[in-house]
Structure formats: C-alpha cells, structure tokens
Specification:
Elements: H1 2-19, H2 27-35, H3 37-45, H4 47-50, H5 56-59, H6 77-80, H7 85-93, H8 99-104, H9 123-127, H10 134-139, H11 157-160, H12 164-167, H13 177-182, H14 185-193, H15 202-206, H16 230-242, H17 255-261, H18 269-283, H19 289-322, H20 347-368, H21 372-403
Helix pairs in contact: 2-3, 16-19, 19-20, 19-21, 20-21
The chain binds heme C (8 copies).
Length: 404
C-alpha cells in the first residue's frame, strides 16, 4: 500500500516534470490550446516550440482575445530575418524571392480574378513563394513565403529536405520537375531505397548545403544572352519577339526591364557559367566530370532543337499579323504574345502558347532531369504536332481571308 502510494507520487512528479513547458505557457498558448489545438501541437513538436519561443515572436502581441483576432500580425520573410539572417539573405538573392514579381508582370495577371491571384487559389498559391510587397499584403492578408517547404507550425528542416516538399509547385503543365525526376533513374533510386544519398533529389542539386538561393543557368524560359551560336541566336530573337521583350523590328522593349527585375534570364556569360560550374561540381561528386559535361551539353542542345521548331511556329503566326488577318490589342505591336497564355484570342494562338509553355518546356526540362520520355513524347513529338496544326490553321485562315 505505502509502496504503491510512493510509486504514484514519483510517477506524478516525473510526469509533471516532462510535461511542464520550459517556460510558463503564454496566454496565446493557453487559449489556442482550445481554439486551434493542432497548431499548438505542431508548433510544440518543432525545434522552435521546443526552444521555448512563443507565438508572439511571429504574430505580435496586439491580439489578445477572440474578438480582436484580425489584429494578429501575419509573418513575412522579414519576421524570420532577425534570427535566420543567413537563410533570409540567400533566399532574397535567389529566384524564389522574385516569384510574386514575375507572376505580377505577366500581361494578363491584372485581369485575373482576385481570388485566383491575391486569394492564392490560382497563380498566387504557388507564387507566394516570392516576396509580396506592402501593396499586395494590404490587398490580401494571407500568404507567406518561408512556410513553403518547411510548413507551419512544425517548421521542420527534415520535412524541407524531402523532395516531396517541392512537389506541390514543381509539377504539372509547364514545370513537371516532380514527374520527370521521380521517373528518372535518380528518382527511382530514391523511391526504391529511400533517402540513402546514393542518388540526388531536388535539394542535392538545387539547395546544396542548405543554400536557399535557388538559381539555374537557363532559368524557366531558357533564354540566355548573349549567344555565340549565330543560328541559335536567330531562333532566340524570334522567341524574344514572341515574348515582346524585343519589338517586331528587334529593338528592346520595356519588358526587358521586367526580365532584369525578375531575374528571368542570366544576362552575361559569366553569370550563366557560374551556375553551370556549380551544377557540374555537384554531378561530379558521383559521376565523372566528362560524363556530367556531356549530359548537360546534350540537354543544352535539346533547347536549340526546340527553339528551332518554336521560332518556325511563331513566324507563321506573326505572318498572320503582318497580313492583318490577326489584329493586335490596342497599343500592342502586331505580333503574337506568348505571355498572354490561355487568354490568347484565336485557336492558332492557343496552340502556339501550349507549344511554348507546355511542350517546349518539357523538351528541355526533361533533358536536364534525365527523363528521355518527357523529352520525346511530351516534348519534341508534341512540338512537331503543334507545328503541323499551326501551319494548317494558318493556311486555312489565309485562304478564308482571301475569300472575303
Ligand atoms: C482568449 C483567447 C485567445 C488568446 C489569448 C489569443 N488568441 Fe489568437 N485567436 C483566438 C481566436 C478565437 C482566433 C480565431 C478567430 C477566427 O475564427 O478567425 C484567433 C486567431 C489567431 C490568429 C489567426 C488570425 C487570422 O487572421 O487568421 C493568430 C495568428 C493568433 N490568433 C495568434 C495569437 C497570438 C500570437 C496570441 C498571443 C499574443 C493569441 N493568438 C492570443 C483566440 C485567442
Ligand atoms: C516562426 C513563426 C511563427 C510562430 C512562432 C507561430 N506562427 Fe502562426 N503562423 C506563422 C506563419 C508563417 C503563418 C502563415 C501566415 C500566412 O499565411 O500569411 C501562420 C499562421 C497562423 C494562423 C492562421 C493560419 C491557420 O492555419 O489557421 C494561426 C491561427 C496561427 N498562426 C497561430 C499560431 C499560434 C497559436 C502560435 C503559437 C503556438 C503560432 N501561430 C506561432 C508563423 C508562426
Ligand atoms: C526569435 C527568433 C526566431 C524567429 C523570429 C524565427 N526563428 Fe526559426 N528558429 C529559432 C530557433 C531558436 C530555432 C532552433 C535552432 C536549433 O535548435 O537548432 C529555430 C529553428 C528553425 C528551423 C529549423 C527547425 C529544424 O527542424 O531544425 C526552421 C526551418 C525555422 N526556424 C524557420 C523559421 C521561419 C520560417 C521563421 C519566420 C516565419 C522563423 N524561423 C522565425 C529562432 C527563431
Ligand atoms: C510554394 C511553391 C514552391 C515550392 C514549394 C517550391 N518552389 Fe521552386 N519555384 C516556385 C516558383 C513560383 C518559381 C519561379 C520563381 C520566379 O518566378 O521567380 C520557382 C523556381 C524554382 C527554381 C528555378 C530557378 C531559376 O533559375 O529559374 C528552382 C531551381 C526551384 N524553384 C527549386 C525548388 C526546390 C528544390 C524546391 C523544394 C525544396 C522548391 N523549388 C519548392 C515555387 C515553389
Ligand atoms: C502549381 C504552382 C504554380 C501555379 C498555379 C502557377 N505557377 Fe508560375 N511557376 C511555378 C513554378 C514552380 C515556376 C518555376 C518553374 C521552372 O523554373 O521550371 C513558375 C514560373 C513562372 C514564371 C517564370 C518566372 C521566371 O522568372 O522565369 C512566370 C512568369 C509565372 N510562373 C507566372 C505564372 C502565372 C501568371 C500563373 C497563373 C496563370 C502561374 N504562374 C501559375 C509555379 C506555379
Ligand atoms: C541531378 C541533379 C538534379 C536533380 C536531382 C533535380 N534537378 Fe532540377 N535541374 C537540374 C539541372 C542540371 C537543371 C538545368 C540547369 C541549367 O539551367 O543549366 C535543372 C533545372 C531545374 C529548374 C529550372 C527549369 C528546368 O526544369 O530546366 C527547376 C525549376 C528545377 N530544376 C527544379 C527541380 C525540382 C523541383 C527537382 C526535384 C523534383 C529537381 N529539379 C531535381 C538538375 C537537377
Ligand atoms: C524552396 C524551399 C524552401 C523555402 C522557400 C525556404 N526554405 Fe528554409 N529550408 C529548406 C531546406 C531544404 C532546408 C534544409 C537545408 C539543409 O539543412 O540542407 C531548410 C532549412 C532552414 C532552416 C534550418 C537551417 C539549419 O541549418 O538548421 C532555417 C532556419 C530556414 N530554413 C529558414 C528559412 C527562412 C527564414 C525562409 C524564408 C526566407 C525559408 N527557410 C524558406 C527549404 C526552404
Ligand atoms: C548523389 C550522387 C549523384 C549525383 C549528385 C548525380 N547523380 Fe546521376 N546518377 C547517380 C546514380 C547512382 C545513377 C544510377 C546509375 C545507373 O544508371 O546505373 C545515376 C544516373 C544518372 C543518369 C542515367 C544513366 C542511365 O544510364 O540511365 C544520368 C543521365 C545522370 N545520372 C546524370 C547526372 C547529372 C547530369 C548530374 C548532375 C546534374 C547527376 N547525374 C548527379 C548518382 C548521382
């Protein structure tokens, strides 16, 4: 009897000791254990919760009750900066930080529904990985970049190191890196063996040593300047016209400033080569340098193949503009605009945009992610089909115009 009472007391003291928080629970926690218990649980399961940090370090202290919840501050990347200056700086120097700016710069973004952009249900839901300025934040409360890969409120390094953390955004129509990588030899080894480190995952190649500055040589659009290969530069000039970065006469437009501000392309050989050298050094940890260089050079060559087809298609549609069969929007040059995406007004331009954004992307992204199937059947083969369709449709339009 005495013995079990003694045992009970010891057990209770022990339980109290392990369950007692490092510091007394704040008002935030006490109330939120009832209001949002899973948020408190997640936070306490992560390192920040376990270090004794309080909710108020990110949300401020202005909100104190159920009635004044709108006074809770929602964190931005600036909130994390005082304690995580290194990651913040790397992020700011990289491509992710420009995600919101790049999205906003598209010619039709301003015409999309509020819920779709600011409300994060469409483009905005992924592009919130970028910095939203004060105007954007005033327009819509939610959306912070730093919980994109280590999700709130666990904020786990381990979670962010899994390739699945990138999957929500790097998948689908115009950037299926998840699909390409996971069905490549690299991904299949990961899926077969687990995270043993024998084959690379997204973070191995793009966030080496935890560096938050993601940046590649070619970028999303695969347009480097300058270009030594004159034939290739000819194709690229046509694509740049199709992006309205060059006007139909080949002169730079205001969109070139957007390219610079959004770090859309590397604009010097040195900048391009620096990223390439970093990547080659990573491949060379497992492969021979010669093997890795050959792999990447062949992927570069696939961009050129794709660009040749793309330029051909753009010129066919441009010809419809110069004949006056297709008419530009007011104030715009008489040339197809690839960046209007699915808001393109004619079927022939719809085909052209899909050729550019879905099929050209796959033809080279697949090559960089060691996926011959994407390069072939989802990439080059589809581009050839698009070109046939565009040629046929243009001929039909020219014939029809001649009849009227
Ligand atoms: C007396 C209870 C109570 C206290 C104390 C309290 N909260 Fe809340 N809080 C709530 C309730 C209830 C909501 C949900 C309101 C709603 O349904 O949108 C909320 C919402 C929030 C939100 C979400 C706001 C939004 O716009 O979605 C945050 C963040 C938050 N609280 C943080 C805190 C922090 C930090 C503290 C301490 C400084 C704190 N809370 C203290 C009850 C409380
Ligand atoms: C390290 C910073 C950080 C800390 C500490 C933190 N949060 Fe948050 N919290 C965030 C971020 C980031 C968001 C997402 C904001 C957005 O979407 O704009 C968020 C959003 C929220 C929301 C609204 C979104 C939702 O999913 O309902 C609530 C409620 C909330 N936090 C409660 C809490 C509570 C309670 C604590 C303490 C247990 C806490 N937070 C601690 C960073 C933090
Ligand atoms: C007041 C300082 C402070 C602020 C503000 C802060 N953190 Fe932390 N953070 C810490 C501390 C302390 C740790 C734990 C370090 C350790 O134990 O290694 C940590 C750890 C982390 C980790 C690593 C967790 C792990 O599993 O290893 C991540 C990710 C993280 N913080 C993200 C964020 C983000 C995102 C924000 C902003 C929304 C933020 N932090 C704001 C202090 C802070
Ligand atoms: C919330 C969505 C989201 C998540 C999660 C995400 N990304 Fe991104 N990523 C983007 C967006 C959007 C862009 C384009 C940014 C821009 O427009 O400036 C991008 C661009 C990139 C780029 C392209 C750099 C360039 O040169 O153009 C790389 C590489 C990249 N991400 C790697 C990753 C990796 C690795 C992960 C996972 C650890 C990841 N991303 C997680 C949305 C995301
Ligand atoms: C599923 C998430 C997702 C959605 C939805 C999404 N994007 Fe993206 N976007 C990304 C990712 C990821 C990248 C980077 C891809 C890469 O580099 O291969 C990107 C790249 C871009 C880029 C190129 C940025 C650059 O500098 O190279 C622009 C511009 C862009 N997106 C605009 C938009 C617009 C406009 C919409 C809506 C019509 C949209 N995105 C919808 C995830 C998304
Ligand atoms: C073996 C290394 C490796 C792995 C693993 C890898 N990538 Fe890449 N990635 C590359 C290379 C190489 C490029 C092209 C770099 C250049 O521009 O020269 C690239 C380019 C990109 C780009 C820019 C557009 C494009 O596709 O060309 C994005 C975005 C990207 N990768 C995201 C991811 C994501 C997300 C994952 C995981 C699902 C991933 N990568 C896995 C090597 C890798
Ligand atoms: C594209 C995905 C992604 C985004 C966006 C992102 N992180 Fe991370 N974060 C990671 C990955 C991956 C790791 C693990 C890196 C490693 O240890 O190799 C990590 C680790 C961390 C750590 C732990 C570092 C350590 O060594 O323990 C902190 C702190 C952190 N991130 C803060 C931030 C902050 C602050 C932001 C916003 C400015 C941010 N992260 C945005 C992917 C991301
Ligand atoms: C962490 C080690 C590691 C890194 C880093 C790595 N690889 Fe691999 N790679 C492997 C392994 C292991 C295989 C499977 C070998 C095989 O196919 O027999 C593989 C397979 C490949 C294959 C497919 C070979 C085939 O026969 O199907 C290509 C292509 C390739 N890697 C290229 C690259 C390139 C390019 C880079 C850098 C952008 C890179 N790898 C980075 C480990 C790595």
């Amino acid at each position: 009897m005495r013995r079990s009472l003694w045992f009970g007391l010891v057990a209770m003291t022990y339980l109290l000791a392990v369950s007692a928080p490092l510091v007394a629970a704040s008002d935030c926690v006490t109330c939120h254990e009832k209001v949002t218990p899973n948020i408190v649980k997640d936070f306490m399961s992560g390192k920040m919760g376990q270090s004794g940090l309080d909710c108020s370090v990110c949300h401020g202290k202005d909100h104190k009750s159920a009635e004044d919840a709108p006074r809770a501050q929602l964190p931005t990347e600036e909130t994390c900066k005082p304690c995580h200056g290194t990651q913040h700086q790397q992020y700011m120097d990289g491509k992710h930080a420009a995600g919101w700016v790049a999205m906003s710069a598209m010619p039709k973004t301003g015409f999309q529904p509020h819920a779709y952009i600011q409300g994060l249900k469409g483009c905005g839901g992924c592009h919130k990985v970028g910095v939203r300025d004060a105007t954007a934040r005033a327009d819509s409360r939610y959306g912070s970049p730093c919980d994109s890969c280590h999700t709130r409120h666990k904020f786990s390094r381990e979670e962010a190191l899994r390739p699945e953390a990138c999957r929500t955004c790097h998948m689908g129509f115009d950037h299926p890196q998840w699909e390409m990588w996971s069905s490549s030899k690299h991904g299949v080894i990961y899926l077969t063996e687990g995270d043993t480190g024998r084959a690379p995952k997204c973070q191995t190649c793009h966030m080496d040593e935890g560096n938050h500055r993601v940046m590649t040589s070619w970028g999303f659009l695969a347009l480097r300047l300058p270009e030594d290969d004159a034939e290739w530069m000819g194709y690229r000039a046509t694509i740049l016209k199709g992006l309205h970065v060059l006007d139909p006469d080949g002169n730079p437009t205001a969109r070139l400033d957007v390219v610079k501000a959004g770090k859309v392309a590397r604009l010097s050989k040195e900048e391009w080569q620096a990223e390439r050298d970093k990547m080659l050094a990573i491949c060379s940890r497992c492969h021979s340098g010669s093997y890795a260089r050959a792999q990447l050079a062949n992927a570069d060559a696939m961009i050129k193949e794709a660009d040749q087809l793309m330029a051909g298609a753009i010129e066919i549609v441009a010809d419809l503009y110069s004949r006056g069969i297709l008419k530009p929007e007011e104030g715009k040059a008489a040339y197809p605009d690839l960046l209007t995406f699915y808001d393109a007004m004619s079927p022939v331009e719809q085909t052209l945009y899909v050729m550019f954004l879905e099929h050209r992307m796959r033809a080279f992204q697949g090559a960089f992610h060691m996926n011959p199937d994407y390069v072939t059947w989802y990439g080059l083969a589809e581009m050839k089909r698009d070109l046939v369709e565009i040629r046929e449709e243009a001929a039909r339009m020219v014939a029809e115009a001649a009849r009227h």
